[in-house]
Predict the structure.
Amino acid sequence: MIKVTMPKLGLTMKEGKIVKWHKREGDKVNKGEPLVEIETEKITSVVESPATGILNQIVVQDDSTVPVTETIAVIEEMEEVESDQGGSAQETAGVSPGEKIEREEAVAVERSPAKIRVSPLAQKIADKHAVDLLAIKGTGLGGTITKDDVQKLVDSREDGSPESVGPRILEIVEMNAPRRKTAEKLAQMHQETPHVTITMPVDATSVVEMRNDIKEAVEKKTGKKLTFTHIFAKAVSLALEEYREINARLAEDKIITIEDINLGIAVDVEKGLLVPVVKNSQGMNLIDIVVKISDLMEKARSGRLSLDDMTGGTFTISNLGVYDVDIFTPLLNPPECSILGIGKIFKRAWVVGDRIEARPIVTFSMTFDHRIIDGALAARFLQRVKGILEDPEDIARES
């Protein structure tokens, strides 16, 4: 027998949530094929089967959270299975249909509000329609709440009976671990951190021209499309090398300045916002940054980010220009002390000497922790980023 345990995917990981089993009890599994999808505070990852055999028992069901190293399933290796010539797959694995049902009921009981007995299907219907199971008397064996018990209450609501109160609910979705962790961090940040946001418009004429001049060469060299996010990331990295005080964090009463410049790049994915990190960007040229950011974004959108990809950030960039956003207030990503929000590049009236011209303009919004960074320092840093972009020779030179 091989025990499958909740893996420890990082030094700080204490527990994981079972998102979805890719196999059922009694199924044959091959070593290395996807077995179960798990979710941590940072990432969602697929755990592969450690052996070839029969999935004898699923100990922890979907939507359940358990500590690391706890057994979540048991696999009977193929050699053991083949030595037993009789019985079905379930019987071979040592699981009778009756035992499987009891396990499902036991899990459902464990998940219910007051340790009452409820069938898995009834629990699913109750979750979808926000039904309070404590208000239902089960008619099943031993007082188990059945799907018919729950559906009866749901139907009575729709009929307009006295049980119907408030607006109808379309869907109830439990927050996944990354979004829950983000919510906790943001709530804590708002309570503890005096954050300030300053904005600054930037003439993007030279940046647009530079990108048009080098984008084909960059794509030919890297196989990746050159975006403005890549260029902005390089500009920020150059500015942080000059303004190290921005690349800092607070630890109790100490300000810690970080030597490595690790840029977090906010990425919108199906399950929410992820911030993969470009490590040591101070040693990268534009080509390096194009490749690294592109690879991280691809991994984020395909759910393949590792815990290392998501940790260690010192400064975050959030570009909402693709969504036609002009100006916004980005929220800090603790323990980082600053974040840069980037809006859409669009043409507007701009004074050049004594003339008014239509020029491509982008607005930067920088939010910072005022306990660490003063407004004047933040403004000077933002001015430096602006200066690099309005005269991007240093960026173009490295392409």
The CA atoms of residues 185 and 191 lie 10 Å apart. Residues 177-397 form a domain with the Chloramphenicol Acetyltransferase fold (CATH 3.30.559.10). Residues 80-114, 161-166 have pLDDT under 50 and may be disordered.
